[in-house]
Design a protein that fits this description.
alpha/beta; globular; 7 strands; TXNDC17-like; two-stranded antiparallel ribbon; 5-stranded mixed β-sheet; single chain; Thioredoxin-like_sf
Amino acid sequence: MPITDHYPIPPSTQDLPVPIDSSAPLFLCFIAGTDPATNASWCPDVRAALPKLQRVFESETAPKLLYVHVGQKPEWKDQGNVYRTQWGVKAVPQLVKFQRIGGEVKVVGQLVENEVLDEEKLGAFVSA
């Protein structure tokens, strides 16, 4: 499945593009914004995670992955950041797995920071 960058986050989880008639998961990965001076993420953990995520999600049979940028460092550090307050993001990168259960979109798992960097754990999480 393709990876979508700069996904515009909807108002709620129920508006995520999770298949209605399937148990197929959808993954959102909350990542740090791109530093205009370097054209790379300002967060070293995100820079380290991106190639691993690419490898795990690059096959045609992989589930869909959407990258959500949480902003530049000052925006992210603000405790009122919308991703912190409305989406429960505690750190970046944070990979969240959603599935439709009983007609509702639910969080069924997540990996945070160093867990995303563990390629074996990442692969098992995505394929489970």
